[in-house]
Amino acid sequence: MSSNRIELRFAGTGGQGLILAAKMLAEVLVAAGRKVAQSQTYEPTSRGGYCNADLVVAGVEVDYPLATALDGLVLLDTLAIAPSWSLLKPGARVLADTRLCPEVPAGEFRVLHLPLTRTAIELGSERVANIVALGALAALCGLCERDALARTVRAEAPRSFVDLNLDALAAGWGLAQAADAVA
What is the pLDDT of residue 31? Predict the structure, then answer.
């Protein structure tokens, strides 16, 4: 990853673990020497309302901490399309869940539909779709090393779900590698 500013968003609904996924990625990037600002937006309902978690990453101090031009977007619900779409840069990568976001508007960016929630369900719990998405985004955008991300997932995941989360991370990384090979 270059020293230039890069902006990322995990978007969906409350309860999907979007903020946790962004926090994990931020920790890995900070440990690698990057400067990171993290912010989130969510509706007052605790589950089901719109939610996003943004990261602004740079090699130098982040001069403005809010995302204004997204380089990468993960979509885990159609509710997240409208608030995110106008922020996409030309050439941005959009990872849309095949089940929850089967159709997205056209634009000057690369949309990749991945079975993020279906993969999580196959692993045993839809609740790890955020970690599947985290692995896919990190791999597709070349954000960090998989081992570094796995160490952070191991440290941050609830103890009884560490193995499931590590499996989800590996599955997301694998989805991205398979999709990149086809592209």
Answer: 95
